[in-house]
Amino acid sequence: xxxxxxxxxxxxxxxxxxxxxxxTENGQHFLVDCGGGNRILKVLKDTGIDLTDLHDIFxxxxxxxxxxxxxxxxxxxGTKMNQGKYEGDLRIYCHSDLVNTIRTLSELTTQKxxxxxxxxxxxxxxxxxxxxxxxxxxxxxxxxxxSTKAKQYGFTMNIDGTKFTCVGDEPYNEADYxxxxxxxxxxxxxxxxxxxxxxxxxxxxxxxxxxxxCLLAEELGVSNLILYHTEETHLxxxxxxxxxxxxxxxxxxxxxxDDLEVFEV
Length: 265
Hints:
Elements: E1 2-7, E2 20-25, E3 28-32, H1 39-46, E4 54-58, H2 64-67, H3 69-83, E5 90-95, H4 99-109, H5 112-115, E6 122-127, E7 132-135, E8 138-144, E9 153-159, E10 162-166, H6 177-180, E11 185-189, H7 197-200, H8 210-220, E12 224-228, H9 238-246, E13 253-255, E14 262-264
Parallel strand pairs: 3-4, 4-5, 5-6, 10-11, 11-12, 12-13
Antiparallel strand pairs: 1-2, 1-14, 2-3, 7-8, 8-9, 9-10
């Protein structure tokens, strides 16, 4: 399974893209979040992800930096459907409260000839806590991250015995231990360095620092930790600085990816 990091930044970044990523196997893709605008089209192009091979999209929650790009995905994929250039259906997974939000955003901003596919070839898959689906031929379990801001879901994917987990863009909640335990890969937000918490105030935004994310992964026994959803003031030095702080608390494989970086999971 290939993991392509499409964006690594928080909501207000301008030098990198908002956090989103894709999982790929056998030429098919599972897109997780779409960022805050049409730059999703550029990063997909730059990483060689063709929209005709994308049939599964998961939107974690309603915040602009995660959801607004879905309008562009619906617009372009719906257009390809109309042109006879897209085979099969597009499935959009999200918690049940989010379905109407995505539909409304699209209907207000996209032509009717695209939205006419809703319910037919553009299929919304409403999720409840603990739901399991087959995506890319793998079992995926979705769970409520118990956000204190906006309802948000994460997921785990069983990749041929390897457990890959994304807990959204807030700190892991121990209420989800049964879902997260035994993860081989964990994607976890790290808004900034612990030493700069006073500057960036992650706790006020319900985020964590590199130190706290790494302590958590150490406690959970995670083998591979990916940090994302960061500030961008240290973008050129971010990998080096975050790794230096994180390895003091975490002894597994620590990754601080740049946009467009690719991993084998």
